[in-house]
Design brief:
Structural class: mainly alpha
InterPro entries: H-NS_C_dom (IPR027444), H-NS_C_dom_sf (IPR037150)
Pfam families: Histone_HNS
Strand order of the largest sheet: 1-2
Number of strands: 2
Strand content: under 5%
Protein name: H-NS histone family protein
Radius of gyration: 34 Å
Largest sheet: 2 strands, antiparallel
Length: 154
């Protein structure tokens, strides 16, 4: 068995890349033909397809052997896994966004109840860090019960 030289292997790679590009071109032409046929059959418009003129264009392809090797390395399995990862990430982001909005809506709908107040108009709900006025009143000899707001009786 003879060993191949780097030049021979590179030549094979170039030949296979040209063959792959030719196959891709034929497949693209077939797909475009089927799409055009379906558009004509169903009478679809650009708006129906979500093509309102703000369609993101695919980035320009890099040329050269290095770019071709990178494309060849991206097997269908690798591409599928990458697409699944993107979809999963998007789904998690949407779920997190919905959860955050629901939590914020619940917080916004609950009014804060004032539990502590002093005679100077300072108030505190009893949640979070104790405010300075509360700490100063405690240091001055008052108790938390002294500052507690009495619930109105009906």
């Amino acid at each position: 068995m003879t060993k191949k030289t780097l030049a021979q292997i590179q030549s094979q790679i170039d030949k296979l890349q040209k063959e792959a590009e030719a196959i891709r071109s034929r497949e693209v032409a077939d797909v475009v033909g089927r799409i055009k046929e379906a558009i004509a059959h169903y009478g679809l418009t650009a708006a129906d397809l979500g093509l309102d003129g703000r369609v993101a264009r695919a980035p320009a392809k890099k040329s050269g052997a290095k770019a071709a090797r990178a494309d060849a390395a991206a097997t269908p399995k690798v591409r599928r896994r990458a697409a699944e990862a993107v979809a999963t990430k998007a789904a998690k982001a949407a779920k997190t966004d919905k959860t955050a909005k629901a939590a914020n809506a619940a917080k916004a709908s609950r009014p804060s109840v004032i539990k502590y107040a002093d005679d100077q108009g300072h108030t505190w709900t009893g949640v979070g860090k104790r405010p300075n006025w509360f700490l100063a009143a405690i240091a001055a000899g008052k108790t938390a019960e002294d500052l507690r707001v009495q619930a109105p009786t009906a």
